[in-house]
Inverse folding.
C-alpha cells in the first residue's frame, strides 16, 4: 500500500504546461515591488486569494507550527498580518518574535518566501484592522493584534519544467543576492 501511495503521489502533475518567464536580471531592486507585480500576475492568471500565505512560527522550545492566513499590507513597517494575541500563533510570537511567510501560486509555478523579525503594530492600527474585517459589527477586540514581519530574507522562486528552477533572493539590505 505504501509503495502504491508513493507512486500515486509521484504521478501527480506538478505545474501547468505553460509557466511564466522570470528574468532575475530584470527584477526591480525593491522586493516589495516585485511581489506586487507577482500578485497582479497571479490575479490575472486566475489564482484565487493570492494574498493567502502560510505563516510559520516556533514556540519557546523551538517547535515549529504553520497555518494559513491573509497578508494585510506591505509598507515601511514590514509585511502585515493579524491574529489574536491569545491564539497559538500570538503566544508563539510573544515567546519568539521571528516568523516566515510562504506564498504559493501553483497555477504559475511560483512561490515567495519572506523571513524575519516580527513586531507588534500600534493598538490603533490593530483596532482599525479589526473593524475593517468582513462582518465587523463595531465591537472591540482588545486581543486583536496587527503584526509586521520585517524581512531579513526574501526569495522569489519560479518553477521550470527542466527542473532548473529560478531562485531570486534579497538580503536584509534589500539588495538582490545571487
Amino acid at each position: 500500500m505504501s509503495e502504491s501511495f508513493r507512486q500515486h503521489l509521484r504521478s501527480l502533475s506538478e505545474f501547468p504546461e505553460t509557466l511564466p518567464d522570470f528574468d532575475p536580471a530584470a527584477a526591480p531592486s525593491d522586493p516589495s515591488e516585485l511581489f506586487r507585480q507577482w500578485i497582479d500576475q497571479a490575479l490575472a492568471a486566475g489564482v484565487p486569494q493570492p494574498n493567502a500565505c502560510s505563516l510559520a512560527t516556533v514556540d519557546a522550545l523551538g517547535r515549529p507550527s504553520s497555518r494559513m492566513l491573509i497578508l494585510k499590507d506591505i509598507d515601511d513597517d514590514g509585511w502585515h498580518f493579524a491574529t489574536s494575541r491569545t491564539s497559538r500563533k500570538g503566544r508563539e510570537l510573544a515567546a519568539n518574535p521571528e516568523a516566515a511567510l510562504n506564498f504559493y501560486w501553483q497555477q504559475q509555478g511560483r512561490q515567495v518566501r519572506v523571513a524575519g523579525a516580527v513586531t507588534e503594530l500600534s493598538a490603533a492600527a490593530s483596532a482599525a484592522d479589526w473593524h475593517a474585517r468582513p462582518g465587523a459589527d463595531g465591537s472591540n477586540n482588545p486581543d486583536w493584534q496587527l503584526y509586521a514581519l520585517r524581512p531579513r530574507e526574501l526569495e522569489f522562486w519560479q518553477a521550470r519544467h527542466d527542473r532548473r528552477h529560478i531562485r531570486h533572493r534579497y538580503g536584509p539590505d534589500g539588495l538582490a543576492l545571487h
Notes: The chain is about 25% helix and 35% strand. The longest helix spans residues 31-44. The mean pLDDT is 94. The domain at 20-177 is CATH 2.30.110.10 (Pnp Oxidase; Chain A).
